[in-house]
């Protein structure tokens, strides 16, 4: 394909492939990838239609499957108390807040949710936005800009990378969970940039391991950097009461400048949050573009997240059961010789197979046996590190976990060679 035009190029000089999206070379590349999946003979693994709430099991067509493919970690999506709270919220407030909260005004529900989240997180205050992905994009885009630097873990989620791109700041990844590599970058770069923002995730969704938060906090303090922690997968799942990596490591909450998380996983809703000091959150509330210029959470989403926050605190057995199930799955998988990598202390267990065709084949075999595990390929993970990914929930039953691991071990062995 022709090189992209420079910013100054006139429309007439643009290559023909830029005139229609249909003709973009990247569309053709995508179609080739899709054809490979379709030609593999495997059942199409994407956009499957589920008939009800996805919990430890799910129904597709007329068959029930054992599911390891949803973020319903605490089994709260579909909980009667949450559904009831949503019904009441919709009756009272309708289905939309119909504008940015700055101008359309507040609903008591959203104010209560942000207070409850801040209390749950042990923070002064908290702000909610309509999407977890957009929360990272707008927050990073707002905190740093030209002349600044973002240092992020090499496994950072797409939303973190998009935020970096939007910000115009320089960006350098450091080797996954490698505090020495982070320190090296800080030593080389700290004095060359105005602000340095370190971004890590509480729990990494592809590898199922935790950030080394105490080490990162020590470096942040030593080098005078800012720190943002994305708790998409660690909030509700990690720590004695599910209060995330801060609780797990017993860190002082104020050592992290911005705690970010999503409402779409443990909180059984949709949206993102940013938590921190009262002063920081007030500034964001009045200036953050993705908040100020975007609609507030729907009443239904706010009600679901509020009811979920209350349930997590009131029913600590959910977090305990989740931890027990994840530990059992990991122990059985490791004992069966499956390559679970660095997974530990999270409800995410990968089984790394390397080759994408093999990964797709094993996922398909498992699906035929009634077990759902997501096949993950490049670009979501590095080339050659394709894997099946298992999300545990607190609702999985011990015999189902044993049955699933045995099936995975059999299919992985059968696919070898
Ligand atoms: N951050 C991380 C680490 C994530 O894994 C995800 C989504 N899985 C997001 C942000 C975006 O969250 P959401 O899906 O709620 O928009």
TrEMBL record:
Transmembrane segments: none annotated. This is Ketosynthase family 3 (KS3) domain-containing protein. It comes from Streptomyces virginiae (Streptomyces cinnamonensis). The chain holds residues 693 to 1109 of 1109 of the full protein.
């Amino acid at each position: 394909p022709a090189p992209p035009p420079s910013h100054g190029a006139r429309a007439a000089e643009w290559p023909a492939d830029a005139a229609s999206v249909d003709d973009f070379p990247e569309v053709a590349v995508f179609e080739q990838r899709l054809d490979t999946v379709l030609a593999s003979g495997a059942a199409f693994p994407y956009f499957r239609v589920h008939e009800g709430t996805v919990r430890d099991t799910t129904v597709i067509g007329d068959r029930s499957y054992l599911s390891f493919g949803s973020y319903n970690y605490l089994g709260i999506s579909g909980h009667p108390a949450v559904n009831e709270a949503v019904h009441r919220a919709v009756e009272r407030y309708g289905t939309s807040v119909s504008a940015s909260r700055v101008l359309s005004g507040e609903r008591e529900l959203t104010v209560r949710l942000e207070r409850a989240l801040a209390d749950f997180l042990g923070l002064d205050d908290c702000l909610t936005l309509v999407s977890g992905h957009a929360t990272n994009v707008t927050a990073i885009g707002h905190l740093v800009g030209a002349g600044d630097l973002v240092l992020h873990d090499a496994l950072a989620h797409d939303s973190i990378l998009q935020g970096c791109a939007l910000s115009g700041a320089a960006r350098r990844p450091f080797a996954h969970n490698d505090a020495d590599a982070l320190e090296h970058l800080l030593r080389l770069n700290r004095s060359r940039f105005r602000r340095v923002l370190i971004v890590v995730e509480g729990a990494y969704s592809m590898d199922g391991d935790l950030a080394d938060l105490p080490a990162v906090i020590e470096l942040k303090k030593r080098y005078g950097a800012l720190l943002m922690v994305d708790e998409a997968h660690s909030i509700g799942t990690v720590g004695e009461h599910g209060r995330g990596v801060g609780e797990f490591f017993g860190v002082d909450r104020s050592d992290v400048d911005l705690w970010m998380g999503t409402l779409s996983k443990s909180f059984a809703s949709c949206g993102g949050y940013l938590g921190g000091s009262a002063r920081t959150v007030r500034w964001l509330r009045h200036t953050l573009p993705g908040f100020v210029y975007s609609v507030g959470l729907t009443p239904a989403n706010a009600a679901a997240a509020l009811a979920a926050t209350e349930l997590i605190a009131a029913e600590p057995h959910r977090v305990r059961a989740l931890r027990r199930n994840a530990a059992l799955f990991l122990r059985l998988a490791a004992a069966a010789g499956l390559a679970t990598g660095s997974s530990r202390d999270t409800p995410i267990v990968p089984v790394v197979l390397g080759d994408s065709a093999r990964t797709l084949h094993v996922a398909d075999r498992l699906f035929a046996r009634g077990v759902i595990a997501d096949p993950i390929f490049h670009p979501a993970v590095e080339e050659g590190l394709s894997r099946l990914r298992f999300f545990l929930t607190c609702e999985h039953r011990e015999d189902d976990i044993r049955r699933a691991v045995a099936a995975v071990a059999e299919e992985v062995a059968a696919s070898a060679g």
